[in-house]
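Hi C.,

You asked whether I'd gotten around to modeling the 270-residue construct. I have! Everything is below, sequence then structure, no commentary in between.
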Amino acid sequence: MEAEFAGLIPELMETLKAEGPYAYTIMPEILPDGTVKSPILRTREEIASAYRLVRGMSDLLSSEALIEITGSWYQFTEAITRGRRKGQNNVGRNHVISLFPVSGGSGITGELVWVKVDRSLMGFGAAPEDCDDEIDRRRKLLSLHDRYCAALKAGDAHAVVDTLADGAQGAIRDYVLDTGTLVELDGKPSNLQYYEAFFSRYEIRSVDMLQRVAQDWYIFAELRLEVSCRRSGQDLAFHIAEFLVPAKDGRFIIRVGHGTDPAGQSAENN
C-alpha cells in the first residue's frame, strides 16, 4: 500500500511473488448496454503495464478498511479509498473490495478488485421493481449463494448456471485444465461448459463454508471442497475464495476469485 500511495511501479512489482502463475483483474469495465467485463492479466509485463496506466492517471491518497479477512492463503478487504486524477484537486471516494491470494514463499500472486457499481447498470432488460431495503437485498443474496453452494455440492452444472445473470462473467481458478491461474468465463454457455467439464473430472464429496460476508452489493465466501478424481480415484481437497456481484435481476453477473492447489487429503492432514 505504501508503494500504491507513492505511485512507485518498481516497488509495487516487488510485492509480487518472483514467479507466476499470476492472476490479476484490476480494471473491470461496465459498458452502457449493461455488459460487464473483468479482463484477466497473467504476466508480469501485463501487470506492470496496468499499474503504470492506473497510477499514471490518478493518485491513491488513502485506503480505510471496513472489513478484513486474513486467511492462510489470501486477504480479503472491503475498503473506502480516496484518490484524485493527476493534475486535479477534486478528491473522489470509492467503495472497493479486493482479494489478494498468495502461495508458498514471499509475495502475492494476484490482485482481484471490484469497485461498487449500482446494480441497475449491470445486466440486460428492464430492472424489476425493487421495494427491498438493504437487509432484504442482503438476505436474498445469501439465499442465492446458498443455492449456488448446493448446486456445487450436487455436481449440477445447470443449477450453478441458474444462479447467474445473462452475460455473467467469471474469472476463477482453473481446476479443469489445472493451469494454476484464472480461467475467463464469458456468458452462461461458457460457464456451463466449464462446470460440466469440472464435474466430469471430479465427484464432489463435500462443500464446507469457512468464511462468508454478505452485503447488499456483493457476497464474499471461502469454501473448502473435498472431491474424488473420477479418473484416478484419488481423494483431494482445495479451497476457493471468491466474490460474487449481482446484476439488476438479482442474480450473479460477476464471479471473481482464486483457489489453492488440489492436495491429497492424507498429506494435507499430516
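If it helps when you're writing up: Confidence is low (pLDDT under 50) at residues 266-270.

Thanks,
B.
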